[in-house]
Amino acid sequence: MGGKSKKKRDTPESFKEKGNSAFNMHDFSRALELYTKGLELDPAHVILLTNRASAYIELRRYEDAITDSAKAIETDPNWIKGYYRMAVAHRELSRFQEAIDYVHRGLAINPEFTELLALKKEIEADMEIETALPLDHPERKKFENLFNWLIEGGAKFPKIKLRFYSKDYRGVHSTTFIAKNECIVVIPRSHIITLEMAKATPIGQKMVAANLNLLSPKHSFLSSFILQEKAKEESWWKPYLDILPESYSNFPIFYTDEDKEWLTGSPFLDQVNEKIQDIEEDYNCIVDAVPEFANFPLFEFSKIRMGVSSRIFGMQIDGNKTDGFVPLADMLNHRRPRQTTWSYEESKNGFIIEAMEDIERGIEVLDSYGKKCNSRFLLNYGFIVRNNDANEYPFKCKLREEDPNLMTKRSLIDGNSSQTFRVQADEKENVFNEFLGFLRFLELNDISILPRIMEECQEEDQPGFKPSKVKPISLANEKRVLQHVKKLSENGIALYPETLEEDGQILERTDLTENQRNCVLMRQGEKQILHWYLKFADLALALLDADRKEVKKAAKGSPYESYLTHCIIPLIGK
Ligand SMILES: C[S@@+](CC[C@H](N)C(=O)[O-])C[C@H]1O[C@@H](n2cnc3c(N)ncnc32)[C@H](O)[C@@H]1O
Hints:
CATH class of the largest domain: Alpha Beta
InterPro entries: Rubisco_LSMT_subst-bd (IPR015353), Rubisco_LSMT_subst-bd_sf (IPR036464), SET_dom (IPR001214), SET_dom_sf (IPR046341), SETD3_SETD6_MTase (IPR050600), TPR-like_helical_dom_sf (IPR011990), TPR_rpt (IPR019734)
Structural class: alpha+beta
Largest sheet: 4 strands, mixed
Helix content: 40-55%
Strand content: 5-15%
GO biological process, one term: methylation
Number of helices: 25
CATH topology of the largest domain: set domain protein methyltransferase, domain 2
CATH superfamily of the largest domain: Rubisco LSMT, substrate-binding domain
Protein name: SET domain-containing protein
Shape: globular
Low-confidence stretches: none
GO molecular function, one term: protein-lysine N-methyltransferase activity
Bound molecules: S-adenosylmethionine
Pfam families: Rubis-subs-bind, SET, TPR_16
CATH architecture of the largest domain: Alpha-Beta Complex
Number of domains: 4
């Protein structure tokens, strides 16, 4: 009897009500089930159809939502919610033109329908972003060719698209929701340029045969591959070659003298000049062994070298480590922490990218190029990371010519007179200990303790002097070390024409070119480290005369807590 009366209550309306309650409780799967039950009783129930479409949208099943909405519109062409859901689902799939068409069809029925009016504005904003570069711009055409070439070769990337921020700066965006662990991109092996391929080219073979002593062999081989392919009238790789940037003017090796002036005082300038020389040295080395390589001008070689340094992937194919270009995978821009992960996947016979977290529709899909200081980002990738916690400053520590123990000390550091420590504003980094350890050694007057120091440096597999193993020696030695740190920091700061505060003000200007801005950000990062060390030296020097209690108090919560606790307190106690 009870069963019978229950059946009586099961109507499309009752399922709709129950479905709506579940929907309001955000239980979209249950709502979907209930709407489906209602539709089994009345398949053309337009409210149930658009309500189920709504549940599908919440569950990110947009194609199903489109099917239901289409049916609702077909059943009742005046059912405005059908157009609304259609537009929403299409928008979620980044089919903006279809989405806006449905908005217009809905508004034709009721021009006042507020949800449609709001949606119209949002879709129009989406479309404006999409068309930052005109739809018929030749750059877009090049990417269409690249994508077709990749897809014909078996590549898969159904949920991403390229967005043009400008002609030369592009990024990858999700066209729809991407779930954590989903594979976003597969690039078949046939479309990857590897080091082995570069070595197998006519010039590559001659380079291998000449057994060249190159400073950057991988980068040079891959550059020679690109140059050779570009020179061919018809290259199979043309769709990829065409999308490589034409201008590398944001890379410091191509900075004008004017740009470089913005780096006055910065040790980064030395890195830039070294890079220019290293590339030229590799170029000359290749030309000496393979004279026809001179057909490629040094300028072109240098540009492609920057293309390689900013796009190269290290991977393992068939168990062998290699490096190469992976078209499209190299369109993802950098951000830390990692949002995606990539690898060569033997089972897929290709290079894959997977999402490490849920990625909402429309947002930029990013890759992490690693934790690097801005000098490496700027030099090799042509951009700067703001508030970069991995910035470094190279402190060059020189043995003093007048040091009576110069020769003994020099012999312990392999005949060198100086050592450079790329320090960070972080006492937990090992380089902090190496830097201070080296200064303790450098400031050591009583060399009778050198044998003990050397003994403490010894490790089974690695004999020799290790600065990080040199712990505080004495109060007097540590004082000289801290005075040395202070001097190095002050000297470094004095080299820049502008102060740290002035850099902050300059960055507020709106008339800076990208290169000028990057130079200021670069030197600002260096100065921040120098000031960190200056503060460190001043504080620690002042505490050398304090009592333990005072040092403990100053240490607590300070950025130098570990040093003060483990280096200063034991010295005071001695
Ligand atoms: C692997 S490519 C990425 C695709 C590149 N945006 C393009 O349009 O070809 C690396 C280059 O992208 C740019 N880039 C990547 N991440 C960036 C970021 N976080 N900020 C600024 N530029 C970035 C730099 O010009 C870099 O040399």
